Amino acid sequence: MSKHLQTIRQAAKYQDGIFATFQVDVPGDALHYHTETGKLERIQTGIYRLTDRPVSDHEEYIVAVLWSREEGVLSHQTALSIHGLSDVLPKQIHLTVPEHWRQKRRQIPKHYRLHYADLEDDQLQWFEAVQITTVDRTLKDVAAAGLDPDLVEQALDQAMDRSLVPPDMDRRLLRYLISKNAR
């Protein structure tokens, strides 16, 4: 096995066989060679998959986080769906990226919806190979962002039934966030 392929495999090991070029020190001609020989598949600019690994059920999430150079975390409706809360069906992948991204002049793919916030570690948790917002942070985010109040209430009820949020989680706060956004 080539040295470059070993480097790629190491980077992709915990990402379901997916990696970004910023994660590996591999020249472009080596990436091109391994793509042409069928060992790699280019998913999008700068992001590849090892073809001998099965396609991940969560590939789109891994790719989204890699697109953000691992600065983004899955959030809002996407996190709500991953947590299995409410009947929400996100049309886009929601990512929260740090505030400094507001100044970036980057082309955002149509299927991504960016939100800006500097999140604390206690507002994050792991979902397989990527980070997502915690249930309580997710509920506050979707309420503040104007998600249908019935879906927010449904998500909160389900979260409380499954003990995913503290029993004293304040419904009044969520209602306030919803009403504030409705103005």
Q: Can you characterise this structure?
A:
There is one protein chain. With 183 residues, the protein is α+β, with helices and mostly antiparallel strands. It folds into 2 domains: 3-50, no CATH class; 59-182, no CATH class. It has helices at 3-12, 28-36, 59-67, 76-82, 135-144, 149-161, 171-182; strands at residues 18-20, 40-44, 47-50, 73-74, 93-97, 112-116, 124-127, 130-133. A 3-stranded antiparallel beta sheet has the order 1-3-2, sandwiched between helices. A hairpin with a 2-residue loop joins strand 2 and strand 3. Helix 4 (76-82) crosses helix 5 and helix 5 runs antiparallel to helix 6 (149-161). The termini are far apart.
Give a short account of the largest sheet.
3 strands, antiparallel
Q: In angstroms, what is the radius of gyration? A: 19 Å
Total beta strand runs: 8
- How far do the termini sit from each other? 61 Å
Q: How are the strands of the biggest sheet laid out side by side?
A: 1-3-2
| Global structural class | alpha+beta
- Binned, the helix content reads 25-40%
How many separate domains make up the residues?
A: 2
Identify low-pLDDT runs: none
Number of helices: 7
Coarse morphology: elongated
Q: SSE order, as H and E?
A: HEHEEHEHEEEEHHH
Averaged pLDDT: 92
How much of the sequence is in beta strands?
15-25%
Index terms:
183 residues; alpha+beta; three-stranded antiparallel beta sheet; three-stranded mixed beta sheet; 7 helices; 8 strands; elongated
